[in-house]
Recover the amino acids of this structure.
């Protein structure tokens, strides 16, 4: 529908002469990048992945329909668009709707503006970014090499279980959490 309206209007900003969507991205390459991590990029307007692992509900894209421009101004084409499921360390699942599969990019990218459309919010905290939905903690993107990295690997999650439960329970005070723990209602962790 969007492309049809552009063709009717004669194109517009962000479109090429062939009426394709052109999105500018800077490809981020780090020598020690983990395959299961995502850049939480506040400048991105789209979800972008370089793997098909975790992708469901696919829609094919015609050649040239969606191109991304990288740092050297080269165009890389999205091959298809899908819903990507990201399984987070705490058991939550991000469903990234309209995630573009671009195998030529070296990193996966999560767009905060797209998450906000789905009801998520984020705040800067403790040298990283806390991602929540309905005031419930969902994920944490730590700063690595000046980038917010959303790492999906359990072993690399550095937040304490006490802090995670504090967030999950609507930011209740420490005394109330200790009472719930002492009463046996929060037995899944050692209270710190």
């Amino acid at each position: 529908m969007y492309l049809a309206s552009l063709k009717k209007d004669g194109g517009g900003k962000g479109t090429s002469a062939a009426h394709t969507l052109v999105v500018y991205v800077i490809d981020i390459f780090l020598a020690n990048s983990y395959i299961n991590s995502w850049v939480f990029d506040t400048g991105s307007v789209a979800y972008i992945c370089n793997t098909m692992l975790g992708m469901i509900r696919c829609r094919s894209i015609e050649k040239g329909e969606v191109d991304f421009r990288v740092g050297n101004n080269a165009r890389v084409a999205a091959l298809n668009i899908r819903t990507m499921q990201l399984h987070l360390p705490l058991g939550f699942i991000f469903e990234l709707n309209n995630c573009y599969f671009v195998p030529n990019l070296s990193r996966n990218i999560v767009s905060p503006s797209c998450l906000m459309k789905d009801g998520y919010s984020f705040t800067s905290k403790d040298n990283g970014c806390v991602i929540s939905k309905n005031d419930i903690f969902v994920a944490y993107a730590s700063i690595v090499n000046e980038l917010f990295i959303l790492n999906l690997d359990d072993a690399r999650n550095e937040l304490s279980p006490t802090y995670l439960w504090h967030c999950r329970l609507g930011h209740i005070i420490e005394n109330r959490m200790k009472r719930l723990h002492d009463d046996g209602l929060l037995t899944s962790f050692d209270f710190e």
User: Anything to note?
Assistant: Residues 127 and 143 are 6 Å apart (CA to CA). The chain has two domains: 2-157, 160-192. The chain has a mean pLDDT of 75. Helices lie at 2-9, 112-117, 161-168, 174-182.
